[in-house]
Write a structure and sequence with these properties.
five-stranded antiparallel beta sheet, single chain, about 600 residues, 17 strands, alpha+beta
């Protein structure tokens, strides 16, 4: 089955549940705020366009109204209707019109560059104020052309963009009719500079934006960039500007979006246009977006670092724990102590619990291992015993038959001592050859020891054998096979022979204690030292295999240890051997403690 590490899972969780939602929300916020700001900017600039349009219409209307007095002015009517006016009088009258009318109109107005009056009868009256030298002949020719085309004009017309010298001007005209004949007699021409249009358009200006006024031919009458005044607008844009009274649309050129807001003039064919760079409208928002992205990226990096560090710490701890668990699984309980146990969080608790568990497993493993070793040793000893029993069954047969022949010859020769010895020895061999049960009855063991002691009595003429045993208990008490003979041999060896003393007394007595049945083997020999006796009793009580091995090497008392160990293994504690002193500094009593059933009341002391 395909698995994923915890580090990978944490990374995916952080990516899909933190980074991805933040990115989506940020994109939605950016798009929504961009549209909102864009619409706010468009609506705001539309209001400014409308307001500027009204101001420009008012300005043109004011120019138109200022020309009304010229229509009925007596001097102008006299000038255009009097065919007999001499040149001198015409000059004087033109001077008066120039001083009284033109000067009055231009007084206090810096937007009017010049005024001309072109009549059918006389020469033109031109009044211009300019710091540069003007080509008046050119102005007079222009005026003649305008007058010639005046029949097709409205009474007041905004003619369009012209130039007076190097200065662009807006030319307007007012047709003047004779008050007597009502015929078209003269044309009043006024050239206006673009200062007023510029001041009105300044309210629309955004940084790097363009404000322009286009006439119906597509020519730029006014532009915030003076160098572009007089240029013709692109045909596609011109058609869109003239397609409706007002509208908003967006164009894209060189990957840069531009918003066009336009509105046509009410009284002229002009169109007021504001061209707004899209990036300038949302410029602050873009900057804010960039700062937000940088700040967000910084926060994500910091969060990822902290989160990643914590995740690495967590997964590193788990990896360490996993490696230690694998060592324990392979049977290696020597796990290394790490600093994880010192942590004061859940990881520290887990590691402390793990080390406690490993220690407990180690202890249980050692106990099981020790039990297995003991079991193997017991099996080895049982096999050795079985082997010895088999060997004993092989050799005693020959010896038993031989003893029978010897006994027959002894009887024929009337030698009863030899007969008695061979009979006892034969009984011992028969006991050896019987079935190899480990646990036998006290009666069987006593029969065997009787034969042994009869032989010993023939060896030791001064030996007294004292056996005081309850006959009723012999069939109820169980014990380990060949337990008594080693104890009696030990009494002969350590009580008498080792100290070169004559064997004089061997006693066997039994009695019952509340918790066990006791068989005593008594000698009245040299006795046993108190410290050695205590050491033996301590070893018998605290049975330990290594301790027993040490005592066997030290005291070379294999028989005692063999009887005690087999009894303890067969019946458990507190059964086995215990050494007592018969009298102070003389004689030894070896007690063999055996189990018995308390309900065996007939077995009494």
């Amino acid at each position: 089955m395909h698995t994923h590490s915890i580090k990978k899972k944490l990374f995916l969780i952080f990516t899909f549940f933190v980074c991805l939602p933040i990115s989506i929300i940020g994109m939605i916020w950016y798009e929504s705020s961009t549209n909102t700001i864009e619409q706010e900017a468009i609506q705001s600039n539309k209001k400014l366009i409308q307001q500027a349009n009204e101001y420009l219409n008012m300005y043109i209307t004011e120019i138109e109204n200022s020309t009304y007095p010229f229509i009925t002015n007596p001097q102008i009517q006299w000038y255009i209707n009097n065919d007999k006016l001499s040149k001198y009088n015409a000059f004087i009258l033109s001077e008066q019109i120039e001083l009284e009318l033109f000067t009055q109109l231009m007084n206090g107005r810096s937007d009017i560059v010049g005024i001309s009056l072109v009549s059918q009868k006389h020469s033109q009256i031109n009044f211009y104020q300019s710091k540069e030298l003007l080509d008046m002949e050119r102005i007079r020719n222009r005026n003649e052309n305008l007058f010639s085309n005046g029949k097709d004009m409205d009474n007041f017309s905004v003619i369009g963009l012209r130039r007076i010298g190097s200065q662009p001007v807006i030319t307007v005209s007012r047709k003047i009719h004779s008050t007597s004949s009502y015929l078209y007699k003269a044309l009043l021409i006024i050239d206006i500079n673009l200062h007023q249009l510029s001041s009105i358009s300044d309210n629309l200006s955004i940084e790097n934006s363009n404000v322009l006024i286009m006439d119906d031919t597509g020519q730029t009458i006014f532009h915030t960039d003076p160098n572009r005044i007089g240029e013709f607008v692109d045909t596609s844009l011109k058609e869109r500007y003239l397609s409706s009274e007002s509208d908003v649309f967006t164009t894209t050129a060189n990957d840069e979006k531009e918003i066009h807001i336009y509105e046509q003039f009410k009284d002229t064919d002009w169109v007021l246009v504001a061209q707004l760079p899209h990036n300038k409208i949302i410029g602050d928002l873009v900057q804010m977006r960039t700062i937000t992205i940088i700040l967000g990226a910084f926060i994500v990096i910091v969060a990822l670092t902290v989160f990643g560090g914590f995740a690495l710490s967590l997964t590193g701890s788990l990896s360490t724990l996993q490696r230690m668990m694998k060592k324990v699984e392979s049977g290696n309980y020597s796990v290394q102590h790490t600093g994880m146990k010192e942590r004061r969080d859940e990881i520290g608790h887990v590691f402390r619990s793990f080390h406690a568990m490993v220690n407990e497993l180690k202890r249980l493993h050692e106990e099981v291992h020790l039990a297995q070793l003991q079991e193997k040793q017991l099996q080895i000893k049982q096999k050795e015993s079985a082997l010895q029993a088999m060997q004993a069954q092989i050799n005693p047969h020959f010896l038993y038959n031989t003893l029978g022949i010897i006994n027959s010859h002894a009887i024929l020769d009337n030698n009863m001592v030899i007969s008695k010895i061979t009979t006892s020895l034969a009984q011992m061999f028969r006991y050896n050859l019987s079935e190899a049960r480990q646990v036998v009855l006290l009666k069987e063991e006593m029969n065997h020891i009787h034969s042994y002691l009869e032989i010993q009595q023939e060896r030791h003429r001064h030996l007294t054998v004292d056996i005081q045993i309850d006959e009723q208990c012999q069939d109820l008490i169980s014990m380990i096979r060949f337990s008594l003979q080693p104890l009696v041999e030990n009494a002969f060896l350590h009580g008498y022979q080792k100290h070169k003393l004559k064997a004089t007394y061997i006693g066997i007595r039994t009695y019952k204690q509340p918790d066990y049945y006791v068989i005593q083997i008594i000698d009245k020999g040299y006795g046993i030292q108190s410290d050695i006796k205590e050491a033996y009793n301590q070893a018998f009580t605290n049975l330990d295999e290594q301790l027993i091995h040490d005592y066997e090497k030290e005291y070379k008392s294999i028989g005692l240890w063999n009887v005690h160990e087999r009894t303890r293994l067969a019946f458990g504690s507190p059964y086995g051997l215990h050494i007592k002193q018969w009298k102070e500094d003389r004689g030894t009593i070896i007690e063999l403690r055996l189990p018995y059933q308390k309900e065996d009341n007939e077995c009494t002391t």
